[in-house]
Design goal:
This protein is α/β, with parallel strands linked by helices. It is 17% helix and 27% strand. It contains 5 helices and 13 strands. The strands form 3 sheets. The chain has a 7-stranded mixed beta sheet, with helices on one face. It has a 4-stranded parallel beta sheet with strand order 1-2-3-4. A two-stranded antiparallel ribbon has the order 11-12. A hairpin with a 2-residue loop joins strand 5 (73-76) and strand 6. The longest helix is centred in the C-terminal third of the chain and has 11 residues, at 147-157. The chain is globular. 35% of the residues are buried.
């Protein structure tokens, strides 16, 4: 069981087993809740995040955070977790997610490579990804990227399956049907839409 950026206390996660792994992408309140992580984590749960996340935990709890920076990787059992940069490219958005502060992740799990974008625009590091089986890609203006840009990036790195997520921005919900239509230019990519909110 893997939890990514859990917030909202333990109750929303009651149907799931205690996480074996918790990945935290960055410090924003809709991605990091120290109390939720502490409520969910069991004695053997591995918690992974960038240094900026570890600094938000009380000093007594920081030792349980496996700190990984952009470009680094860490073993998790037989799996490997790679920290992929996540950041804004557009000048007036760079303050939201500066390069180096947060992580996206590629988790190599039992022969399957899963990409979790975190909050990012269509950065070169995303477009250069290879052999991704499942990708979770955000699209919520003004904080990350728009639907067309997200679709264009997906068409370049070609995951087998893409899950659009984090699609609620200041203007409301992003148009996931438009995203699906744009990605359909490549019939080898399957778009799966889940209910996130």
């Amino acid at each position: 069981t893997i939890a990514v950026d859990p917030i909202g206390g333990a109750a929303p996660f009651g149907a799931f087993a205690t996480p074996d792994l918790i990945l935290i992408t960055h410090i924003h309140g809709d991605h990091l809740s120290v109390d939720t992580v502490k409520a969910l984590a069991g004695s053997s749960t591995v918690v992974v995040g960038p240094a900026s996340v570890a600094e938000k935990f009380p000093e007594a709890d920081r030792g349980r955070i496996t700190v990984v920076a952009n470009g680094e990787s860490v073993k998790w059992g037989e799996s490997v977790i790679e920290a992929i940069p996540m950041y804004n490219l557009t000048p007036d958005r760079q303050a939201f997610h500066p390069k180096g502060r947060g992580n996206g992740y590629v988790v190599a799990l039992g022969g399957t490579r899963i990409y979790i974008a975190g909050d990012t625009e269509d950065i070169p590091e995303m477009r250069a990804l290879e052999d991704i089986d499942a990708a979770f890609v955000c699209m919520n203006l003004p904080y990350t990227m728009d639907v067309a840009t997200a679709a264009d990036a997906v068409l370049e790195f070609k995951p087998k399956v893409v899950f659009p997520y984090h699609d609620r921005g200041k203007g409301g919900m992003s148009d996931i049907n438009q995203f699906r239509t744009l990605v359909a230019k490549d019939s080898s990519i399957e778009v799966r839409v889940l209910t996130w909110y």
